[in-house]
Design goal:
The structure holds 2 protein chains of 2 kinds.
Chain A (H helix, E strand, L loop, with lengths): L1 H23 L3 H10 L2 H14 L1 H4 L13 E7 L7 H16 L1 E7 L5 H10 L6 E4 L5 H7 L8 H5 L1 H6 L2 H6 L9 E2 L9 E5 H7 L7 H14 L4 E3 L5 H13 L11 E4 L2 E7 L4 H16 L15 H5 L2 E7 L1 H14 L5 E5 H5 L11 E3 L7 H13 L1 H9 L6 E4 L2 E4 L26 E2 L2 H12 L18 H19 L6 H14 L2 H18 L4
Parallel strand pairs in A: 1-2, 1-3, 6-9, 13-14
Antiparallel strand pairs in A: 3-11, 4-11, 5-9, 5-10, 7-8, 12-13
Helix pairs in contact in A: 18-19, 21-22
Chain B lengths: L1 H12 L1 H19 L10 E2 L10 E2 L6 H5 L3 H32 L3 H12 L6 H12 L5 H8 L14 H26 L3 H9 L4 H12 L1 H13 L6 H8 L6 H4 L2 H11 L3 H29 L7
Antiparallel strand pairs in B: 1-2
The chains are: A alpha/beta, B mainly alpha.
Chain lengths: ~550, ~300
């Protein structure tokens, strides 16, 4: 009588423990998928190798030597939110792609919420993806170095010779990581340097100064606070590092580029001098200004819990200014704002005019790569070639359907309806990477941006920062721990919430050192100096 | 040898029963035991180019980041503390509410109360975070608008760490009370009326009946629920903490739990190896805890133990 009970209870134990173990690890779920798919990246890498080794074997259908005999569905991943009419555009694209490449494509969007987390998961979970957006701000360099993408050098001439010829050689060279091409760069020349964004109509109304540097910006915000007490002078959200600190340093501290990680400081004019910005007097001065802004009520006291985008409060008129945004996005914000409030005006003052030089966007800034997990790298590249170099594909995915989403008048793009009624705005698919200067249509208001660009062209200097590919494997554990310290101890400082800046900085530095700050900074410095030496940057 | 033969004997004697059990066993094997192979990730360096078992073995290096910042103890204590509060207060309140409800005579009122208590369970944490932000934000929150209306000093809740200990517990209870209450309510319905009638004849008043009949009868349900809850004690309530606190580093000292810490650390350095190592740490800790508590309970009263 006793034995069966014991067996059953033993079985039950095993089951329960199993449930507990599998339930316990929240991150375990991710690994589950990984365990079953872990083998696929290496398996899928093989077809491309074998194919590139014997190009003659396959090429039968199309002149470029691309094998299109088998129908494939391509998985295309872009960041941000999908436009409302994406389904219609996708159907149109697929009609063409079906007959021309024997392929269909599925456009996937991550939404901006936690996009970085999703992006990392997409790349490491082994899920088959054929095309994915890359940029310096999505850590293209680090991922390429770690081997997340397929090298394109041998695929390009075979699958997309037109695309290879279309992108200038110096751009192909610029995106190389350890001598190999991992992404297809965008060729449109633009500036994504920041600039002050502010309500020009309010500035005129109250006769406030034009923000040109931190001091005049503060004077502007003071004026807004005084005259429009119900308005929040500065738009800000919980990501105070990216939206406040990094931008502040760009205009005030002559940073080489950015964002610079681990509290490192490097100045554009002295690129071989690496110092610790964290703990420096420079930082103290910056933080004191930010703390003053916080105390004056320029942005919410609970800013660390604000989840709005930076632009939304400007568009709706809740906030008056942004510390920094790039010319293109400024233009977008202005368009959106004026579509519902035609009498409001938005002003822009580029940081480069104050700093004395402008760095045009680095080719790494916008691109598309083929992840290791892709099952159809050649077809993906052929499809991407169409997106860039074929006017029909390109304009359809950039502007929507002519006559339905937009019209062209005097060579200018004109949206039909407004941003809420139109299901596909200009560059509605966030198609920054496949912009083709020859096919680009601009809104009339973009003339302003072009003027800014022309102005910046006069003072352009090369971007010496973005080509640097950091390899953080040697200090990975410290890096993760440091990230934690930054969130807990530096973010409140960045948000101006710490009453005593000196003490706050001291605590934060102690914690950072405990987490291994010195090792991380040393490691970064060493790699940076190797990079500058190798590229003759002085 | 004897137990082995016993097992085979048992198998053949109750083969129909075991056959019926088979789907469950297979389910757990596939969903809970097979994925455990992934634990090996905790000891390797993740590489995009190779499969799991070809990756470089690095021993305990992936675990390093957990104690690198020196707050592992605090995190563990926070996680344990909050969960203990959730379990103890949650069950006590659920029992109390269940008893009160079961004593109610008005049927429609009983149903209505039960539904109202249950509703918060369906509210997602994302919505909860919006509600909480609008209650407590400094400039325009409900609380401060009220205080200003009464000519009192506004309170900066989002920059005051200690306030979040009761707040988080409160919101957890508010959200989960209805659910656990229903379980106890079901247990109470299962108690035979004869006990109560007998007690009534013996002259026991309502408090005596509750204390001497209902409460002891709920003990088994409580112990089972307790052991289940302990199994996931290291898991925390990620959604709750992540949504309510988010990026607010000011509050981390009192509100950071293992799950949120790991999530944040790896948001930047996304590394399968380190993520797994954190999961392994949580699991092992939870496992030890369940075994210990179950052992203690078995010592006290064998019938109540899970196994």
């Amino acid at each position: 009588m006793h034995k069966p009970q014991k067996t059953v209870s033993l079985l039950l134990t095993v089951l329960l423990v199993g449930a507990a173990l599998s339930g316990c690890s929240g991150s375990g779920d991710k690994n589950d998928g990984e365990a079953s798919q872990g083998a696929s990246p290496s398996a899928s890498a093989k077809p491309s190798e074998s194919a590139s080794a014997s190009p003659e074997a396959s090429g039968s259908a199309s002149p470029s030597g691309l094998d299109t005999s088998k129908h494939v569905e391509l998985q295309f991943y872009m960041l941000g939110d999908a436009p409302k009419d994406l389904g219609i555009i996708q159907a149109e694209i697929n009609k063409m792609a079906e007959s021309e490449l024997n392929a269909t494509v599925k456009f996937n969007y991550t939404s901006w919420t936690d996009w970085d987390q999703k992006y990392k998961l997409l790349l490491s979970s082994g899920q088959p993806i054929d095309l994915i957006f890359t940029a310096d701000w999505t850590q293209y360099q680090a991922y390429a170095k770690k081997g997340a993408f397929l090298p394109l050098d041998e695929l390009l001439p075979k699958a997309s010779p037109k695309l290879q010829a279309f992108v200038p050689q110096d751009m192909w060279d610029a995106v190389k990581i350890d001598g190999k091409i991992y992404t297809v760069p965008a060729t449109f020349k633009e500036y994504v340097t920041n600039g002050f964004v502010y309500r020009e109509d309010l500035r005129e109304k109250y006769n406030l100064p034009v923000p040109k540097d931190i001091a005049s910006f503060e004077a502007y915000l003071d004026g807004i606070k005084k005259n429009e007490p119900d308005m929040q002078p500065l738009s800000m959200n919980s990501d105070v590092k990216t939206n406040l600190m990094d931008v502040f340093r760009e205009i005030n501290d002559d940073t080489v580029g950015g964002p610079l990680p681990y509290g490192i400081g490097i100045k554009y004019n002295k690129p071989t001098e690496v110092y610790s910005y964290w703990g420096s007097d420079e930082m103290k001065a910056d933080l004191t200004v930010i703390q003053r802004w916080q105390q004056k009520g320029f942005f919410a006291k609970n800013v660390l819990n604000v989840k709005d985008t930076m632009q939304a409060p400007i568009v709706s008129g809740k906030a008056a200014a942004m510390l920094g945004d790039n010319p293109n996005r400024f233009n977008d914000t202005q368009l959106k704002m004026q579509s519902s409030h035609p009498d409001w005006k938005l002003g822009y003052y580029p940081f480069p005019l104050t700093r004395g030089f402008a760095t045009p966007v680095h080719p790494i800034h916008n691109g598309f790569a083929i992840p290791k997990s892709s099952k159809n790298p050649e077809r993906a590249l052929a499809f991407y070639e169409k997106m860039v170099t074929d006017k029909r594909y390109n304009q359809l995915t950039q502007y929507g359907i002519e006559g339905k989403n937009y019209t062209v008048k005097d060579g200018y793009y004109k949206m039909i309806g407004d941003s809420t009624s139109n299901g596909f705005g200009r560059e509605g698919m966030n198609g920054w990477a496949w912009r083709n200067p020859e096919f680009m249509l601009f809104d009339k208001s973009f003339d302003g941006v072009k003027e800014i660009f022309a102005e910046l062209d006069k003072i352009q200097k090369p971007d010496i920062f973005t080509g640097f590919a950091e390899d953080y494997t040697p200090y990975q554990a410290e890096r993760a721990a440091l990230e934690q310290v930054e969130k807990q101890y530096f973010y409140p400082l960045y948000a101006g919430l710490v009453k005593n800046v000196d003490e706050g900085m001291k605590t934060a530095m102690d914690k950072a050192k405990q987490a291994g700050l010195e090792k991380v900074q040393e490691g970064y410095k060493k790699q940076w100096l190797e990079y500058t030496a190798a590229n003759g940057i002085q | 040898m004897r137990t082995r033969r016993g097992f085979v004997h048992e198998l053949s004697k109750n083969r129909l029963m075991f056959l019926m059990l088979l789907p469950v066993i297979v389910f757990f094997l596939i969903n809970s035991y097979l994925p455990m192979v992934g634990i090996y990730y905790a000891f390797t360096r993740f590489d995009f180019n190779t499969s799991l078992f070809d990756s470089e073995f690095v021993g305990f290096e992936n675990f390093k980041f957990l104690w690198k910042s020196g707050i592992l103890t605090k995190l563990t204590l926070n996680t344990l503390g909050y969960n203990l509060a959730f379990i103890v207060l949650g069950n006590a309140l659920a029992i109390a509410a269940a008893i009160l409800l079961s004593e109610l005579k008005l049927k429609w009122f009983k149903k209505l109360t039960q539904s109202i208590l249950f509703l918060p369970y369906f509210i997602s944490f994302v919505i909860l975070s919006v509600i909480v932000y609008n209650l407590f934000n400094y400039e325009s929150g409900f609380l401060n608008t009220l205080l200003k209306g009464l000519n009192m000093e506004p309170i900066d809740v989002y920059n005051t760490p200690w306030m979040w200990i009761p707040l988080i517990i409160l919101f957890y209870l508010w959200k989960n009370l209805g659910y656990s209450m229903v379980i106890y309510l079901a247990a109470i319905t299962g108690i035979s009326d004869e006990y109560y009638e007998a007690a009534k004849i013996d002259g026991a008043n309502i408090f005596q009946r509750v204390w001497h009949i209902t409460v002891p009868m709920l003990k088994t349900t409580f112990v089972v629920l307790l052991l289940f809850a302990l199994g996931s004690i290291m898991k925390g309530q990620f959604d709750l903490f992540y949504q309510l606190i988010g990026n607010n580093g000011v509050l981390y000292n009192t509100t950071d739990i293992l799950d949120t810490y790991v999530y944040r650390s790896l948001k930047v350095t996304f590394d399968i190896g380190m993520a797994t190592s954190a999961g392994v740490y949580q699991s092992v800790f939870g496992f030890v805890l369940v075994m210990t508590v179950n052992y203690i309970i078995r010592k006290i009263n064998e019938d109540y133990a899970l196994f």
